[in-house]
Amino acid sequence: MSAFFETNIEFLKGVGPQRAELLNKELQIFSFGDLLEHFPFRYEDRTSFLTIGQLHADLDQVQVIGRLTAFELIGEGKKRRLTAYFSDQTGDMELTWFKGVQWVAKRLVKGALYIAFGKPSQFGRKFSIAHPELELITEQPRERPHLQPVYSTTEKLKSRFLDSKGISKLVETLLEQGLTKITETLPAPLLQNQRLLSKSEAVKNIHFPSDPKVLERARYRLKFEEFFFLQLRLLKLKLARTEKYRGQVMGQTGLLTTFYRNHLPFDLTNAQKNVSREIFNDLKSGKQMNRLVQGDVGSGKTIVAFISILIAVDSGAQACLMAPTEILANQHYEGLQPYARQMGLEIALLTGSTKRSARDVIHSALLEGRLSLLIGTHALLEEVVQFKNLGLAIIDEQHRFGVAQRAKLWGKNHDVYPHVLVMTATPIPRTLAMTLYGDLDISVIDELPSGRKPIQTIHRYDKDRLRVFGFIRKQVDTGRQVYIVYPLIEESEKSDLKSLMDGYESVCRAFPDYPIGILHGNMKAADKEYEMARFVKGETKIMVATTVIEVGVNVPNATVMIIENAERFGLSQLHQLRGRVGRGSSQSYCILMTKYELSKDSRVRLETMVRTNNGFEIADVDLKLRGPGDLAGTQQSGLTDLKIADLSRDASILTLSRDVARELLDRDPHLTAPENRPILEQINRQKKNAVNWSRIS
């Protein structure tokens, strides 16, 4: 838009310095453009009227035409209120104000005809409306729009008479001056093909729609535009990266062939084969790979990572695998060490617990190129960790690492950036993945290895505990192991959660003849490892733990996961915890224990867990319940702070906008065509606030 919309909000008629300061603080409205993008969150139909005789308490907002017969101030000090008496031919009612009473009283006209708007409440046989909107009816009533906008505001703004109606007046004033100054941001052919309203028509009708149909068209146009520029930016970053950053060419497959023929103990699923093929095509392309591999817990991402490592090492490079916790780094090391040894690869583990003498050996082996694969935690990022030729960096559970931390891995090779493979066992809804990771190539492993049985999930209440204990006994007696997970370590005074220690004691009392372990975040690393090692070896039969086992050691013999206070966990966390069992060929079970009184959202979460094992379906429900900001986390919040579009509700518009953006860039990658000038100008305007997301991996 033009420079007009960059004008400080203070200079809009009706604002001034004090109101401007409040708008800055309360709604982050600093300029004319910010006010224009403060869209209504709902609309009120002001076309229908009721009589006082038609009112009942179940009605939401109503409009009544009546005469103000009298008004009075009642009470003293803070308890003072203003009551007005309002009547029509069918009866009478009261209008009440508890705030701003003096200001309202000065403006009331006794005997005048008004339109009163608000929510009716019933007291005995009488009705009243608290803090109604009042409009004086003159001989020449102004033309009333069908739908009136309702804007979000705050108590502080209301105290300065900037309630929804006050903000509406400011927007009206702004549009009178600025409607003709709104410039088009999309090319004419695109508007025509997609049958979109012009930008100025859309802005006018999002604030003051003439009817519901045009409101829908205005919303659609603005949502499409918001998604289109977001996707265009991500696709341009991807295009720039593939043009700018070359990668080591890795096309050797000798080691991989040997591994397939002689050492791979099972058949890969079709999904694993497809993803391995996509990675191989990236590695041999000469362009730097930036790929995200999504796969549910137990889908076999680690073996796909090892296949990538073999290609890199065979091509003369080194590889590293970084995990967010020592438990997970150890699991990767224990899992890959036998394969690496069979293939003659030197492999090492580097974590915070690694002794100085072992570190020195690792550092020199890395620099000399003798060490092919280094697995570790944040310790990999330390300055002293230098490679001879790092060609492939694999990051597991990437959302646990900050952008700056991930970027440090890029700097571990001074000649050419290493290929980056990012893995996550947290399924990300497709719309969120397209937005957060739109500049990455995305692969999905959506198939579980053959022989795995779906985990049976059951919801039980506290009253069923003895029955659940009986089930645990049966499982342990057949040689299986059990996890029991609690949300907290210590009992909180403000909370009714069962503490881990109380739970541990009650489990010990219920099963005096079974060896029982305990695991929580406050234990020393050595104690955690000792307890986990006992469970892995089968020395303990029941592991009572907090969520530290959420991403933990693979125990194929553990077949039962009991989650206490399951209503206190988010959907993705419940799904992650459930994934700790079902790692072997035996039937596994997840039992969700809750109290009887549950919120609506809790019931939806629990029903979803019982209904499906599909992580992507679960992630979609999670997106609808929690919204994109919570799922994305603070690091990527800039990509999900959408003004009008909604990732969970507008998936079809997002997909279309990405397709349109991709087609446009295929035809005109640098947007030099005259018809695309509006797009280029809009991108340049947006650049002021843009973040460099090209290194999101």
UniProtKB/TrEMBL annotation:
Gene3D superfamilies: Nucleic acid-binding proteins, P-loop containing nucleotide triphosphate hydrolases
Catalytic activity: Couples ATP hydrolysis with the unwinding of duplex DNA by translocating in the 3'-5' direction; ATP + H2O = ADP + phosphate + H(+)
Residue ranges of domain Helicase C-terminal in the record: 464-629
Domain Helicase ATP-binding: 282-445
Tagged with keyword Transit peptide: no
Entry keyword DNA-binding: yes
GO MF annotation list: 3'-5' DNA helicase activity; ATP binding; ATP hydrolysis activity; DNA binding
Enzyme Commission code(s) on record: 5.6.2.4
Domain of life, source organism: Bacteria
GO terms for biological process, alphabetical: DNA recombination; DNA repair
InterPro entries: ATP-dep_DNA_helicase_RecG (IPR004609), DEAD/DEAH_box_helicase_dom (IPR011545), Helicase_ATP-bd (IPR014001), Helicase_C-like (IPR001650), NA-bd_OB-fold (IPR012340), P-loop_NTPase (IPR027417), RecG/Mfd (IPR047112), RecG_dom3_C (IPR045562)
Function of the molecule: Plays a critical role in recombination and DNA repair. Helps process Holliday junction intermediates to mature products by catalyzing branch migration. Has replication fork regression activity, unwinds stalled or blocked replication forks to make a HJ that can be resolved. Has a DNA unwinding activity characteristic of a DNA helicase with 3'-5' polarity.
NCBIfam families, sorted: PRK10917.1-3 (NF008165), PRK10917.2-2 (NF008168), recG (TIGR00643)
Family: Belongs to the helicase family. RecG subfamily.
Name of the protein described by the UniProt record: ATP-dependent DNA helicase RecG
